[in-house]
Structures are given as C-alpha cells and as structure tokens.
Amino acid sequence: MIWEELDAHLDKVPGIVSAYVGRPGARPTWTRRADATHYAASTMKLAVLVALFRAAEAGRLDLDAPVPVRNSFDSALSGAPRFANDRDYDNDEAVWDRVGGEASLRWLAERMIVRSSNLATNICIGQVGLPAVAQAWALAGARHSVTGRGIEDFAARDSGIDNLVTAADLAALLGELALGATRPGPLASPAGCAAMLDVLVAQEHREDLAAGLPDGTRIAHKNGWVRGVRHGAGVVFPDDAPPYTIVVCTTTDLADGGADGEVEDDACRLIAHVSERVWAARHELAG
Question: What is the DSSP letter of 8?
C-alpha cells in the first residue's frame, strides 16, 4: 500500500516528518506524527490571512483602505523595544518599495501569501492583532498551533514566545477554508473563504507540494521555511476527484536551502515526492 511505502520512506529521513492527508470534513486517510509541533516558519501566515478576512467581514477592518507601510513593530514581549524586519531576510521587494507610503490591507495580505513577505505579515498582524489570529486557529479546530509573535520579534522569541504548528492543525484550517467556500462555516462567509483560497492558489513559491503535481493542477497552499525547517500545506483540487488536504511538515537537516525559499533542497524534493504519491492515490482517499 502507498501509505506503508511512504511511512517506510519517511522512517529513513533524519529529524521529524509529520504528515496529514484526507478530504476536507472527513477522517484522515493517512497521518504521520500529525500532532507533533514544529516551528511554524511562514505557515503561520495562513491564520493571519483568516483573521484579516474575519475582521473585515465583522466591519472592524476595511481591506481596501490604505494603511501606512512602516518597518517598526511592537514586540509581543511586554516592555521590550520595538523591532524591525531585515530587508535581506524577506522575499518581496514590492512591499519594501512602499516603505514610507501606504498600501491596502488586501494587497499586503496577498503579498504575505504569494511572495511570503515578512514585512507585509507584520503590518497585517499590527492591524488585526495577535488575539484575532489565535481566534482563527481556535475556530478552525486547531489544538496545538500558536502564533505568539511577529516575524523577527527576537526579544519575544528569546523569552519563549514562539510560533508553532502541527500538520493536523494546518489541515484543519485549510479544510475549513475549502468547506467554507461551499457552505457557511466557522471561519468566514463562503465568499470570504473562496477569496482566501484564490489568494492561496496564486502562491508563487511552488518548489514543494506543487512540484509533485501535474502542471496546471489547482492547489491552494502555503509553505514555510527557515534553515532546518520546510513545510508545505495545501488543498488540492483535481479535475477528476474530490478535493483533498495535504500537509507535510519537516524539521530536518535536509532543509538546507536557507531563508530565501528560492533554493530547492532535499526537503523540497521530499515534500514533492509525498505530494506526487498522494496524487497517484487521489481516487482512494476516504470520503
């Protein structure tokens, strides 16, 4: 069976590999250490996206209103000095080109996802607030994932405030988005969920989950990476089968591509291999 083959393959991988595969709203077909926590890297941006759309639907934010683009943020650690992002550690010059000016939250949210902009992420968190991000996780049914701070908030990090995810929690959030686009759900209206999926489909970093799929396959996904960590989380929409959720989280020395996300490494190839094998079994997933 494909699942036993994948487990045997992943047993040989150094570090921790977690996985979750299943149809949204159904019991998982295959899991592997799905509740193990990993440093979130940029997968935490999924919950920030949901928090923004929820706030907009509640009338607390206007996604199309301009907000200042400033590189200065409050730390999650009480009493700590404000912090800033490092331009060389980011992935999107388009946001940095607007520093000192303004941009809409909708545009910043899109850059946070499609180019994984750290600066856009921290601006969005500053507008919506960390409690709203925590609520997004909770409403999705996440049990272990935490977004405790912004990106590069080193004072908070060094005090133990961190960003953590599990494969099961990422699958829960993405599954609720997929279901929420077809009927009312806990995260946002069907139109809001569909709009968020469209943003995730426009993801430009495609060297892991998407690399294991046939060209042109629709996948709404977000990945995350730092040295030693590579994650891919998405919902795949085949033309010939129902959608399925796939999440692979790796904390491993194979993830040596650095912080830029543009370098394909062995962790990317590992996630692509899992994605390819799951695609081959797409008709066999539990309904």
Answer: H
First vs last Cα of the chain: how many Å apart? 18
| pLDDT value of position 258 | 63
Closest CA to 199 of 115, 283, 83, 131: 115
Nearest-angstrom CA–CA distance, 223 and 111: 14
**Residue 67 contacts residue 127 (beta carbons within 8 Å):** yes
pLDDT-based confidence at residue 13 (cuts at 50, 70, 90): very high
Beta strands in 161-280 (DSSP E): 163-165, 218-226, 229-237, 244-251
User: What pLDDT, on a 0 to 100 scale, did the predictor assign at position 257?
Assistant: 74
Q: Which amino acid is at 57?
A: E
**pTM (2 d.p.):** 0.97
Average pLDDT over residues 57-66: 97
Number of other residues whose CB lies within 10 A of the CB of residue 41: 25
Closest CA to 260 of 207, 213, 219, 215: 207
What CA–CA distance (Å, rounded) separates 235 from 218?
8
Continuous segment of H or E residues that includes residue 102: strand 102-104
Could you tell me the pLDDT band of residue 264, with boundaries at 50, 70 and 90? confident
